[in-house]
């Protein structure tokens, strides 16, 4: 005999909810999943009405579900947000190019403006060329540092107030474990925060902080959302891989392990002495940094110094890179405004529209319609 839903007691239960073990129907699952995210948003006071919020969109399951749920909740509860999809093109053939196609479809499906910023454009290096130069080992370090800045710069170009990312409860629990195992106490103190803001960084938050990965996959599947499921073709972060496996083992014997770890992490008070020092700005690119030169600029310098040895000549490209201009982070916002104005007037400047699919051939940008700077060349 089919079992009834534990919540509504009417419909047939079709799933067993990973987070609670309840057997529930499809509609009740959608409802509880969405409502929990809504509570996370409201309790964490993530946004204010009128905010321009960028959804870090990779085309993967987490960010695709996030885009869908953010749009749904924004309409259902009248958050009054202006939502944008913001994607980073790391330049990984056979992986990111395909996943960006998914994001472009999501743009149409959800009716949200999309901006794509690329490593090639911002740094003069794609991940493919970085891996060619440094090999497969450690390339995730470059990617992580570059992605963070790329998202911030994209957010400035779109004049956003906030970025949301698809990090889920599993990711947060993994990060807590990793920081604990490495003894990285300042990061351990920060990694449980739902919002990171201030000190010059673009504010970021994780509306899926308490959402289980399994439930996100289930939601995407049951809603038949269009997402890209291939893993990055370059070597994954090995250490995170161990933490992930360990967490999965724990979860299999105790499903609440994920939430328990997050709650433990939240309860840990990090003493003031070990908290990171106040950051200032990078003297080369103006990005926020606790050292004179930010991590991205330091990595780029290493890459460039390695060129002669590796016999890869890309010197001409480096002068085009936006990141080498010494400009203070505060100025970046003004610059972004300037860029938007220039794009809107249809001036014959080199195209700076990152979402442009190159149909303008990098010469004249004819964007005259988009006052949000997100539409790109048409
Ligand atoms: Zn039900
Ligand atoms: Zn820098």
CATH level 4 superfamily of the domain at 27-168 and 206-231: HUPs
Helix percentage range: 40-55%
The end-to-end span amounts to: 56 Å
**What would you say the CATH architecture of the domain at 27-168 and 206-231 is?**
3-Layer(aba) Sandwich
State the major sheet.
Answer: 6 strands, mixed
Shape: globular
Uncertain spans = 307-329, 339-378
Q: Output mean pLDDT.
A: 80
Q: How many strands appear in the DSSP assignment?
A: 10
Report the C-alpha radius of gyration, rounded: 22 Å
Might you state the CATH topology name of the domain at 27-168 and 206-231? Rossmann fold
- Bound ligands, each once: zinc ion
| Total of helices | 15
**Neighbour order of strands in the largest sheet:** 5-4-3-6-8-7
Proportion of strand residues? 5-15%
* Secondary-structure class: alpha/beta
Q: Give the H and E element order.
A: EEHEHEHEHHHEHHEEHHHEEHHHH
- The level 1 CATH classification of the domain at 27-168 and 206-231 is Alpha Beta
Subcellular location: Cytoplasm
Domain Cytoplasmic tRNA 2-thiolation protein 1 C-terminal: 281-310
Domain tRNA(Ile)-lysidine/2-thiocytidine synthase N-terminal: 53-244
Main location: cytoplasm
Describe this structure in words.
With 378 residues, the chain is an alpha/beta fold. The protein has a domain at 27-168 and 206-231: Rossmann fold. Helices cover 46% and strands 10% of the residues. Strand 4 (82-89), helix 3 and strand 5 (114-118) form a beta-alpha-beta unit. Helix 7 (169-182) packs across helix 10 (238-253). It is globular, with a radius of gyration of 22 Å. Bound molecules: zinc ion (2 copies). One zinc ion is lined by residues 5, 7-8, 11, 24-25, 27-28. Belongs to the TtcA family. CTU1/NCS6/ATPBD3 subfamily.
């Amino acid at each position: 005999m089919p079992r009834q839903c534990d919540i509504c007691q009417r419909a047939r239960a079709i799933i067993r909810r990973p987070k609670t073990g309840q057997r529930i129907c499809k509609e009740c699952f959608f409802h509880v999943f969405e409502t929990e995210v809504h509570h996370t948003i409201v309790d964490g006071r993530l946004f204010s009405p009128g905010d321009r919020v960028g959804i870090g969109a990779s085309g993967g399951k987490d960010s695709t579900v996030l885009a869908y749920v953010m749009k749904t909740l924004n309409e259902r509860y009248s958050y009054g947000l202006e939502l944008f999809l913001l994607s980073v093109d790391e330049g990984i053939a056979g992986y990111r190019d395909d996943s960006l196609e998914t994001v472009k479809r999501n743009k149409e499906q959800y009716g949200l403006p999309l901006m794509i910023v690329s490593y090639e454009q911002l740094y003069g290096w794609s991940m493919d060329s970085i891996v060619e130069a440094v090999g497969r080992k450690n390339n995730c370090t470059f990617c992580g540092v570059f992605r963070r800045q790329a998202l911030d710069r994209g957010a400035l170009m779109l004049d956003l107030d906030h970025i949301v990312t698809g990090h889920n409860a599993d990711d947060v629990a993994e990060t807590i474990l990793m920081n604990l195992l490495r003894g990285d106490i300042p990061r351990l103190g920060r990694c449980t925060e739902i919002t990171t803001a201030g000190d010059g960084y673009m504010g970021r938050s994780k509306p899926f902080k308490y959402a289980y990965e399994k439930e996100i996959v289930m939601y995407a599947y049951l809603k038949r959302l269009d997402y890209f499921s291939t893993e990055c073709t370059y070597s994954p972060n090995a250490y995170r891989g161990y933490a992930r496996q360990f967490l999965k083992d724990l979860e299999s014997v105790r499903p609440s392990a994920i939430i328990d770890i997050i709650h433990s992490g939240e309860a840990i008070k990090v003493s003031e002495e070990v908290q990171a020092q106040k950051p200032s700005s990078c003297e080369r690119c103006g990005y926020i940094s606790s050292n004179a030169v930010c991590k991205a600029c330091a990595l780029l310098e290493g890459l460039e110094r390695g060129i002669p040895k590796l016999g890869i000549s890309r010197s001409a490209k480096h002068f085009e890179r936006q990141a080498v201009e010494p400009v203070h982070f505060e100025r970046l916002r003004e610059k972004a405004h300037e860029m938007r104005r220039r794009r809107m007037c249809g001036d014959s400047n080199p195209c700076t529209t990152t979402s442009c699919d190159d149909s303008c051939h990098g010469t004249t940008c004819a964007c005259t319609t988009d006052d949000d700077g997100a539409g790109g060349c048409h």
